[in-house]
Structure formats: C-alpha cells, structure tokens
Specification:
288 residues; alpha+beta; 11 strands; globular; two-stranded antiparallel ribbon; Beta Polymerase, domain 2; 16% strand
Length: 288
Amino acid sequence: MSIEDSYKNKLLDMLLAIDDVCKKNNIQYWLDGGTLLGAYRHGGFIPWDDDIDIGVMRTDYPKLKQALSLELPSQFFLQTDDSEFNYNHAFIKVRDTQTSSSAKLDSTYDQRGLFIDIFPFDFVPKSHALRVLHYAISKMRLFLVVYEKESVIDFSDESIVADRGDESSDQYINKKSNNFFTHLFYLLLNWVPKRFWSWLLFATRKTVMNKKHIGDGYCFPTFFFRSIREYDVYFPLTEIQFEGKTFKAPHNIPRYLTSLYGADYMTPRQDLHTQHMESLQNIDGPVA
C-alpha cells in the first residue's frame, strides 16, 4: 500500500532539511535500506514505501543529534530518548509534527507523524564468535523494547478459544505455552534496568579494535549480519539521485544492496514491505 504523494513530499522536505544540517556541520551521512534501494532501482521512493532511512557513523552521531536539535525547522521534531519519555530505540527519528498515524508501535509516543530513521553505524568485530555475542546482546535489548508494545495473550480470555477457527486444541495449547514462556523470559529480563542494556551495548562497541568492517546491527539487530560490510563499500561516499534531488550514498551501492537484500534486489518485492504508517492523516484532518 502506497501513501499519498503529498506525504512523500513531506518526507522529501524532511530529508532535504537533514541534508542541509549535515552540509552545514560537515557531517557525512548516506541513504540506507529501502531508501537507497528506491533511489537505485526507481530513482526515488519505492512505490509502496512510507519512510526514509539514512545512516551515519557513530563518531558523527552525537554531533548530528546536537545539530538537528538546534537547527531543524520548527515543523520537524527530533525524537530521542531525551525528547520522548517512552522512546527506547537505539537510533533516532526525525518526525513531521503536522501528520499523525495510528501505528501500534508508535502508540505510546506524543509524536506519531511521518518519520526518517537515522541509524548509527559502528565498526564490527572480525571474529564471528564475537559478532554472535554482540548480536545476542543487541537482540535482547530490542526484544525488551518491542515485546512490551506487542499484545500478549490473556489466558483468562475465553473468547480466544472461540476465535481460533479450525486450529486444533494441541496447536492452541502449544501457542499458549510458547507465549507463556516468552512472557516469562521477558519478565526475567525486565528485572534488569533498560539502561543496563544500553550501557552493555556501549561497552561491547568499545571493545572492537577491527576497523575493516562496518554495520548498524547494534541499533537494529534484525539485520545484524547482513548489514556488515567492508569499509570500502561505504567510503569514500558517492552521490545518487532521489526524487530529482542529489543525496549522499555508499561508495559501492550494488555490494551494499546485495548484502542486505540478496542478488535479486532489482526485482520488486512488495510482499516483503512492512507498513509503518497506519491511518495516516494531517493533524487538522485527512489530505484532500
């Protein structure tokens, strides 16, 4: 499902504003993920995409946060764990304050408008064993953040039995059991303060001496291993056209996209898209 062109124009305006801040402050960033794929394959947005992704090295990340907090136009909001009490992601977002969505994962935020994700990229260990350890730590942190926002089966709700359709009793019991143990695991992990996981991720990143491999798996572990690429895939940065404008991009775009999406990345796959915006509307009402 695609979003209205007027909303895509708002996203493009946000990206141009971020690009302007980066240029003024000599900060290197690049188009990432589906945004880079859209630029390379479509010359702009993937037709069914509804957000923008960019990347920045960890060394520039604090500088970018500071610059955005001071220099973004007033209609945009920098969403961090400092500006939003319930925001727990390990990356930041720039939100449009003039739109709002009913997306479930955004339900606890004050700002729920169109957004651009800004992912910090780090050097990654050369050792596979260390990579697995670092992945496990970042994955546990993400689990705690996401799980508390997901609906958990209420075992006292008898309507669940009636609504399970043709599902057998054994399958239903197994699903209940799996949910119970997952929830128990969450409760055990939740005894540890969430700030501990942020500190632990910080500590693990600091132990990396290898400067040859880069990835964003510490902030987004879903693609931890697929995001790991050699330094020369990223730098020196090049440029690419996106919706008729010029933005920064990784040095070797085909290798970048192949590592993330596979060798057939030029084949459109709408079935793989995750919709971020639900019931998107202007604050003053729907777009005409």
